[in-house]
Q: What sequence folds into this?
């Protein structure tokens, strides 16, 4: 089944490439002529802090589609809560809204969002990196337009640590203090990946595909417990403050905080991909979750506005818009040619994030409905191992319970 | 004799010492909040008691911020607070007076239903309230006022306790003289209940300034931060975008201090009404 | 007062008699409310009854019947369908029926029908009264007399109408809606179209995957409510006595210092308190600088020790709650009869004995009803937990709750959190109600505070 899917997807991509190469200019011209006639009224939700630059993007959009009326507003609780914000009253929610990819599965199942048209699917596959296209695909259909990638990286203080020091967790924490938060599963669940396990299978869509209730899982749990003994690993809820005061030399954080850290560290700011860690006696790459920021189209949008909404979603995620997002907000583009543009390619943060987004360094957040339960249960599990409230003897049973709880059909 | 006096002096000194220690413990966190609002800090966390660097920039920023229209929030909240105070006080006093002074068929069932309703936690009803207001197209400040006023009919306990303490003989004398019940209510009941009216109004006025959940659910749907009330607006500054809490944290504290100061002063001035309200309700036992 | 009630006892006339012996307008009044009143020139009453009936019937025909019928299955279409819209070249989702709205308006319809039945009964009573007045040759109230009675014998109707409408719309309707939600499968999986599932959700909470969380959280909720109420009350009384004790000057000033803490809006004081108590927060820094502790204490962090966090929460609650109970106890202390205390002093009782045997019992006696209310309030004390700890520290034995979570904050998480278990939270709401109701019932029985009620 999966191989069959690959074949079709591959052939579709080839076909699309051929078609686009063949049509080339003429196709873009034809959209230009129709673009003037597209009508509709569309509401766009973005994060509060991003409203300003999305207004710029929408201004560009309006030049191309003058008859589409777009309003940009802030979403009630930010894109991270898109599922609950839209779920509260889908008919009042925006027609196009920002959403992290891990919520797409349940939003698609609940019927909150529409799949992308075949043409748009092709375009995403052609323009954006493969991992982004995969991340917005659920049960064979694409449900959102990817716009940026969020993989955590290592940020450190150059005056306290060297580029060589941060290559392995061991040397890093031997020479300086790393401040982090073990109560945040986004930070530390990926250690289980480093230990060689999978979450909801290889494709992230297999309900029974989580296999951490074994020796590998126990190895990851042991690693958490070891960190408590490590004097140079600091548990804190305010890493930035610790970086600023000099109590900490390094932290792991996402690109959304890069600008803040840069401000705090000034010329001592440095960034690198995750180090290697020693799990279960093996030195392996420390992995991260890869989140893809995306825009989805509300299924409650009136039929007459659907096309306009889809067009807007596509526009706010095109190369030009992604670059605007990068300049204003530090969002790392997923558009292939935006990634190779000089400003992005020369940026150390973008470089580090792009390295981290490679397979083997990170795993795309699964989109299962059960992810809500997963987030609820994984943090106490990791924290329990870290603080020692879960004793090594209990690791196996706790992991069993955890896997059972997140693998339930409902 | 001298030893007795010395003992008394010692006792007084010890009591003063205890009182001072307690007062310091109580007030230190508040002082810290005020100090933190003057700190120049971009890490989203204030880890020291005294700021490393003082600034008034936070106050300037909160008033000039384009993302967080603070002045609108104050204006909205003031609007909601004033209207809802007038209406809620009226509703509460009417209900309390009726239940305390008038006898009618539905009185006992009403008291029982009110008691039962008060015991359900309010959060679940929020979803329903949202849709009720939506069907009236009232997901705005007006709707928020409706919710506050709608709930006021159940907040009669304290005021009823107060009315219960006024002797019935006064009413009966007036009725003997030919007064209607309305006249009794209007010319005798209301003038006598000044302290409880002030208490009820005080509570109704403060509510919109501190409610961040109800107002959030009702007002956030518009997506326009100019429609928010202050409590939700400030709360929203910390919750939402990743990395946002860091950038705006000290502005948030400054905003909090700005609204906390008047409310605190207001409450301190009005505390004697608050006490009379609470004890009026409690005296019944 | 009670004599008058007797005078209003309905005179002997059964509805059967009204039906059999009344004229045509009385007979018709059984179907068309208000006709008898209209015929006998009680225009206001008659028009009101008739108008309301007409309005009700119009509503019933146009929306009432359909919304009542939909209530039975909460909408027929439960599954979404994704179709491709060729004309626009985009996918369109055909959505399930919106059960939330159907349920809400169904409940509203039921309320309206019940209200109509109530109105019908009141119409019959009014008709009967009119019949008796005519039969016995009594004076039939005129229009203006009827209207005047609204400001006299029926003043309660005038004063209560608006509040009751508000209570029905904004309290009763939402509460009934919540209760009915507990009997559906309204959750993340069935977010738009859901159906009735009986007591299944109760099963989930009491014996299913949430049981392992429910009972420990319930236990802590009770411990918390007892501790929070007792500590604030007891220490509030002590503080009041301290401030009121002989020789202390500027009492109002001292009281004000404490009251300030209570007056600051809780979302400010508690949110900031959470930072103040953080592992790297100011309090730990101060204590470390003074060398009182060697390592920072994790008071309320997500990885804190549960016992430490629970104690901290109770202590912080004292910080907020003591000022109020101090204020109230002060008022009571000032009104306490002094003779008993003086007599005890004469007999050589020391301060502690006076407090223990006279002052405290008296305050307790006066405060008892308020304490019960506080106890119920503490069971539902959302702010202190939500703003201070967010329910943390984490507990790996719980499902979606932390060590300091109360039932009510857990309920909040179930509704507004990512898991979207609306039905389970409705069940929790009902259970919280049962808990509060049980305690108030016992307490009120014992204090008799509501006997007169």
A:
């Amino acid at each position: 089944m999966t191989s069959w899917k690959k074949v079709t997807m591959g052939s579709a991509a080839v076909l699309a490439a051929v078609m686009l190469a063949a049509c080339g200019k003429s196709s873009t011209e034809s959209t230009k002529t129709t673009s003037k006639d597209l009508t509709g009224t569309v509401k766009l939700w973005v994060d509060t802090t991003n409203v300003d630059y999305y207004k710029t993007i929408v201004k560009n959009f309006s030049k191309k589609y003058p008859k589409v009326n777009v309003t940009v507003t802030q979403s009630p609780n930010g894109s991270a809560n898109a599922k609950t914000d839209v779920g509260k009253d889908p008919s009042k929610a925006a027609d196009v809204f920002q959403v992290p990819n891990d919520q797409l599965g349940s939003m698609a199942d609940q019927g909150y969002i529409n799949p992308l048209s075949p043409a748009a699917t092709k375009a995403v596959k052609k323009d954006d990196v493969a991992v982004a296209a995969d991340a917005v695909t659920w049960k064979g259909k694409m449900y959102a337009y990817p716009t940026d990638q969020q993989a955590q990286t290592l940020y450190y203080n150059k005056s306290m640590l060297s580029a060589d020091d941060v290559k392995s967790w061991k040397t890093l924490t031997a020479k300086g203090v790393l401040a982090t938060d073990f109560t945040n599963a986004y930070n530390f669940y990926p250690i289980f990946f480093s230990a060689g396990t999978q979450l909801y299978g290889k494709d992230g869509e297999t309900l029974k595909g989580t296999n951490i209730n074994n020796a590998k899982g126990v190895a990851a749990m042991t690693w958490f417990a070891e960190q408590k003994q490590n004097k140079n690993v600091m548990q804190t809820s305010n890493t930035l403050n610790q970086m600023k005061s000099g109590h900490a030399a390094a932290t792991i954080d996402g690109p959304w905080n890069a600008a803040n850290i840069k401000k705090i560290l000034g010329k001592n700011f440095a960034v690198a991909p995750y180090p290697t860690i020693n799990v279960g006696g093996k030195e392996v790459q420390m992995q991260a979750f890869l989140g893809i920021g995306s825009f989805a189209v509300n299924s409650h949008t009136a039929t007459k506005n659907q096309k306009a909404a889809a067009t807007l979603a596509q526009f706010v995620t095109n190369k030009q818009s992604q670059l605007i997002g990068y300049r204003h907000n530090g969002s790392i583009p997923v558009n292939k040619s935006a990634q190779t543009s000089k400003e992005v390619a020369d940026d150390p943060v973008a470089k580090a994030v792009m390295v981290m987004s490679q397979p083997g360094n990170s795993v795309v957040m699964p989109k299962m409905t059960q992810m809500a339960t997963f987030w609820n249960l994984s943090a106490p599990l990791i924290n329990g191992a870290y603080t020692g409230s879960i004793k090594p003897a209990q690791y196996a049973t706790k992991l069993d319970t955890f896997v059972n709880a997140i693998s339930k059909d409902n | 004799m001298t030893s007795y006096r010395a003992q008394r002096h010692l006792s007084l000194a010890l009591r003063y010492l205890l009182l001072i220690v307690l007062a310091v413990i109580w007030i230190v966190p508040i002082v810290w909040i005020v100090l933190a609002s003057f700190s120049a800090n971009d890490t989203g966390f204030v880890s020291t008691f005294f700021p490393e660097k003082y600034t008034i920039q936070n106050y300037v920023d909160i008033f000039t911020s384009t993302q967080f229209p603070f002045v609108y929030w104050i204006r909205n909240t003031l609007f909601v607070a004033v209207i809802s105070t007038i209406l809620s006080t009226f509703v509460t006093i009417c209900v309390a007076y009726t239940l305390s002074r008038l006898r009618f068929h539905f009185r006992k069932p009403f008291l029982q239903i009110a008691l039962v309703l008060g015991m359900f936690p309010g959060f679940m009803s929020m979803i329903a309230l949202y849709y009720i207001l939506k069907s009236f197209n009232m997901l705005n400040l007006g709707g928020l006022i409706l919710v506050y006023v709608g709930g006021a009919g159940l907040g009669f306990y304290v005021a009823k306790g107060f009315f219960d303490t006024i002797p019935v003989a006064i009413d009966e004398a007036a009725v003997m003289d030919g007064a209607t019940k309305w006249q009794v209510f209007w010319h005798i009941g209301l003038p006598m209940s000044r302290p409880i009216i002030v208490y009820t109004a005080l509570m109704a006025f403060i509510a919109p300034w501190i409610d961040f959940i109800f107002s959030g659910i009702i007002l956030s749907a518009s997506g326009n931060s100019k429609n928010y009330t202050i409590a939700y607006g400030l709360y929203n500054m910390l919750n939402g975008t990743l990395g946002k809490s860091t950038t705006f944290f000290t502005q948030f504290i400054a905003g909090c201090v700005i609204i906390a100061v008047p409310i605190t002063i207001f409450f301190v001035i009005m505390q004697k009404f608050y006490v009379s309200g609470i004890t009026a309700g409690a005296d019944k036992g | 007062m009670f004599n008058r009630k007797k005078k209003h006892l309905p005179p002997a006339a059964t509805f059967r008699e009204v039906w059999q012996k009344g004229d045509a307008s009385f007979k018709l009044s059984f179907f068309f409310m208000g006709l008898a009143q209209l015929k006998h020139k009680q225009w206001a009453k008659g028009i009101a009854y008739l108008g309301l009936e007409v309005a009700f019937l119009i509503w019933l025909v146009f929306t009432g019947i359909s919304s009542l019928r939909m209530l039975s299955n909460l909408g027929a279409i439960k599954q979404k369908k994704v179709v491709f819209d060729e004309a626009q070249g985009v996918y369109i989702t055909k959505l399930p029926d919106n059960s939330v709205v159907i349920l809400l308006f169904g409940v509203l319809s039921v309320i309206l029908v019940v209200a109509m039945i109530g109105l019908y009964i009141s119409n019959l009573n009014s008709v009967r009264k009119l019949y008796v007045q005519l039969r016995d040759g009594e004076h039939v109230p005129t229009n203006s007399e009827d209207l005047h009675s609204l400001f006299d014998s029926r003043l309660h109707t005038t004063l209560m109408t608006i509040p009751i409408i508000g209570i029905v719309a904004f309290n009763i309707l939402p509460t009934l809606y919540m209760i009915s939600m507990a009997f559906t499968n309204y959750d993340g999986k069935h977010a738009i179209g859901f159906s009735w599932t009986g007591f299944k959700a109760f099963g989930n909470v009491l014996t299913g995957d949430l049981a392992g969380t429910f009972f420990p959280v319930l236990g802590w909720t009770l411990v918390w409510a007892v501790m929070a109420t007792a500590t604030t009350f007891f220490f509030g009384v002590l503080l009041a006595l301290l401030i009121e004790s002989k020789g202390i000057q500027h009492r109002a000033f001292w009281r004000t210092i404490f009251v300030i803490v209570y007056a600051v809006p809780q979302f400010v004081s508690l949110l900031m308190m959470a930072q103040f108590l953080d592992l790297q927060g100011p309090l730990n820094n101060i204590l470390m600088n003074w060398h009182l502790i060697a390592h920072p204490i994790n008071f309320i962090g997500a990885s804190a020790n549960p016992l430490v966090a629970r104690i901290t929460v109770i202590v912080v609650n004292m910080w907020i709650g003591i000022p109020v109970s101090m204020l109230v106890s002060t008022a009571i202390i000032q009104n306490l009869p002094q003779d008993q205390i003086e007599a005890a002093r004469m007999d050589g009782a020391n301060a502690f004995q006076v407090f223990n045997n006279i002052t405290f019992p008296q305050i307790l006696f006066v405060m008892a009803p308020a304490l019960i209310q506080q106890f119920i309030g503490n069971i539902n004390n959302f702010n202190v937990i939500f703003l201070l700890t967010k329910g943390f520290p984490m507990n790996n034995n719980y499902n979606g709750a932390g060590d300091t979570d109360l039932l009510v904050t857990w309920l909040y998480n179930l509704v507004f959190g990512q898991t979207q278990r609306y039905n389970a939270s409705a069940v929790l709401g009902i259970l919280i109600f049962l808990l509060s109701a049980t305690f108030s019932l016992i307490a009120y029985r014992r204090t008799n505070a509501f006997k007169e009620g």
Q: What stands out?
A: The mean pLDDT of chain B is 85. The radius of gyration of chain B is 24 Å. The CA atoms of residues 58 and 251 of chain B lie 5 Å apart. Chain B touches chain A through 29 residues (CB under 8 Å).
